[in-house]
Amino acid sequence: MSGEIEAEIVRELIAVRERAYAPYSHHPVGALVIGESGRRYAGANVEVAHFKGLCAEASAIAALVSAGERELREVYVIGPGEHLCTPCGDCRQRIREFATPATRIRVVDARGALLRDYDMEALLPDSFGPENLTL
């Protein structure tokens, strides 16, 4: 797949993944989202003993929302290996809540090399969003 990820984004992704709390799955994940302002928000997965922890994407989106932003320009996800570590179904819906048609979702390997680059329709086809709730 063509396309290089900015070196600083890769450094931030690796650093946040290394801070993940994954004592049960041993599968640390990091995410970085870029809001409409251009600010970056990072998040790591946080597992808990009852197995209902917080995904990295949810953590990063929570930081974005807590800072007062409501729109995602870009989403980056990094796992621990060479395989795709795509957002789970819950996180695809969370991303959808704050995405626009222009939002890019990029999944990188453990070293930060781009594996896949999605738009929202490819990541979650025929999705349900806030506009579906209007009467």
Query: What is the count of β-strands?
Result: 5
Low-pLDDT stretches are: none
Helix content: 25-40%
Mean pLDDT: 95
Provide the spatial order of strands within the biggest beta sheet. 2-1-3-4-5
What is the number of helices?
Answer: 4
Structural class: alpha+beta
The major β-sheet equals: 5 strands, mixed
**SSE series:** HEEHEHEEH
Describe this structure in a few short sentences.
This protein is of the alpha+beta class and about 140 residues long. It has four helices and five strands; from the N terminus they run H-E-E-H-E-H-E-E-H.
Question: Would you kindly provide a written description of the structure presented here, covering whatever features stand out?
Answer:
The protein has 135 residues and is of the alpha+beta class. The chain has four helices and five strands, in the order H-E-E-H-E-H-E-E-H. The protein has a five-stranded mixed sheet with strand order 2-1-3-4-5. The radius of gyration is 14 Å and the shape is globular. The N and C termini lie far apart (42 Å).
